[in-house]
Amino acid sequence: ISPGGGIFPRTVKSIALTPEVRAMLDVTATEMAPNDLLHAILKAPADLLYNGGIGTYIKASTETHAQVGDRANDGLRVNGAELRCKVVAEGGNLGCTQLGRIEYAQHGGRINTDAIDNSAGVDCSDHEVNIKILL
């Protein structure tokens, strides 16, 4: 874990931000609610934003949260134009809506479709299933 960083439960009321975290996220707040912190992390300046899980975290500014259809992540989701990372890589499925992906790319970001980024994982899973069938 980077200096000033930590692991925090999402159930706490607020998380104190160290000077290192405030500088990394480019925020002035000294504490944030967990969802607000995750929202800030998604919008932080970075070389790479890697989505390796389940959930749609990036949409287009023209889309509503209801149109995305992932209510569990409404409080975290950001618009493609708000991303300040250079590249988005997706190890999971549907991390971005198609319009969110386009909006991010139109603002200078580099992004593939999720099928390209996670194709090796799908291939590996396919081999695993075939081996289990064989055995």
From TrEMBL:
One of its GO terms (molecular function) is L-aspartate:2-oxoglutarate aminotransferase activity. Residues 1-135 form the NAD-glutamate dehydrogenase catalytic domain. GO terms for biological process: L-glutamate catabolic process. PANTHER family: NAD-SPECIFIC GLUTAMATE DEHYDROGENASE (PTHR43403:SF1). This is NAD-glutamate dehydrogenase catalytic domain-containing protein.
